[in-house]
Amino acid sequence: MSSRARSVPLRWRIAEEEDEGRLFADDEVVDRHVGSGEFRRMEFLHVNARTILNRVPEASRVPFRWTINAYRGCSHACTYCFARPTHEYLGLGIGEDFERRIVVKVNAVERLRHELASSSWLGEPVAMGTNTDPYQPAEGKYHLTREIIGVLAEHENPFSILTKSTLVLRDLSLLEKAARRTEVRVNLSVGTLDRQVWKMSEPGTPPPERRLEAVRRLNEAGIACGVLVAPVLPGLSDAPGQLEQIGAAAAEAGAVSVTPVALHLRRGVRDHYLAWLDSVRPDLALLYEGRFRRAYQPESEQRRIAETVHRAFRRAGGGVTAGGTSWRQLAARRADVSPTRRDPVGAEQLRFTC
Ligand code: SF4
Fold it and tell me: Which residues of the chain fall below pLDDT 50?
């Protein structure tokens, strides 16, 4: 069911670019669709974006300079999602609105063709999944990510994808073709293998073991795919045994890299997450009070998480090709190919993603 909407300007800012004070674009809602079937209880706000390639502000420490986010909001509904506040900037709520009212940039593909054809575009790597998930369920309906990949491949423009969804496998052959023309890197985000923690904290996502299966299939198809262990949740998924389990499982799935990310709670999402925690595990309140005096946990805790996951990954044979070369060495060799083909998507760059 669809209904024409009055032209309503939506104003947004880009959270992943750590630029909370800057207005990024004014776009217009041109249509609204109320979901049915598997999308019942959802609403899709169609907008015409003014631009689709978003430049990351110079001050940002993320190692990519350009991003594409075709969707705003995400029905994966992760409780900790740092992108929730972007909905508030749009005049929508960060709770249910974020999960059920999805902004769709319906002109994304057309805009991308136009922007890539510009003489000022230098073919720099483009990161997808830096704000909301490019393979969230809405992608099954709109196919924007699929078409964007096709256009980037046509232009031999390097790109990366971060997702929590196995829907990425729908585009396996397209990604294979793209990887023959340019640098393509995928990362699956798998925060834990603990099913209880997964179900309560990421209720709309595919099960973790299916995501690891996607990692295996992507690498078998020749598309370098790593695992982002993100985020590790204090008191829920940060026990040494849990960290060792996911580190080893990533290696066994053939991940080319593993990147643990400790939970951080910045302004906006902090209250939402802590209210959720209070409803499911009120006994953890004191632990969180101690850990989150600031947005980021103490460095010693971040280090413990990183070392435990990396150690388990290495012990299980992770990060090494069949020929015994580390993936990091391979990436360094590829970096010599051309200035625009430098490894666009080393796992380290993904510290700010979902
Ligand atoms: S963390 Fe990623 S997958 Fe989860 S709701 Fe946010 S954007 Fe979606």
Answer: 1-7, 12-25, 322-352
Beta bridge partners of 46: 31, 104
Using CA positions, which residue lies closest to atom 6 of ligand 1? 81
Q: Is 304 helix (H, G, I), strand (E, B) or coil?
A: helix
Copy the structure tokens of residue 255.
């991940």
Where along the chain do its domains lie?
A: 2-352
Q: What is the pLDDT of residue 278?
A: 97
CA 337 to ligand 1 centroid distance, Å: 34
Q: Which of 42, 74, 200 to mutate to test the pocket of ligand 1 (most atoms within 8 A of CB)?
A: 74
Q: Would you give the end-to-end CA distance of the chain in angstroms?
A: 31
Q: What is the CATH number of domain 2-352?
A: 3.20.20.70
Is the C-alpha dihedral spanning 142, 145, 148, 149 positive or negative? negative
| Per-residue pLDDT, 288 | 98
* SS3 assignment, position 54: strand
Ligand 1 centroid from CA 132, angstroms: 6
Non-local CB neighbours of 182 within 8 Å, separated by 6+ positions: 152, 153, 156, 157, 158, 159, 341
Tell me what pLDDT residue 59 has: 77
Structure letter (DSSP) for residue 268:
T
Which of the listed residues 75, 139, 164, 232 should we mutate to test ligand 1's pocket, taking the one with most ligand atoms within 8 A of CB? 164
Distances (CA, A) of 136 to 2, 23, 54, 100: 21, 25, 20, 12
Nearest Cα to 201, choosing from 228, 226, 232, 227?
A: 232
With a Cβ cut-off of 6 Å, ligand 1 is lined by: 74, 76-78, 81, 83, 132-133, 136, 164, 354
Sheet strand arrangement including 101-105? 2-12, 25-34, 43-48, 101-105, 71-72
Ligand 1, atom 7, lies closest to the CA of: 132
Q: Are 250 and 190 in contact (CB under 8 A)?
A: yes
**Of all atoms in ligand 1, which is nearest to the CA of residue 99?**
5
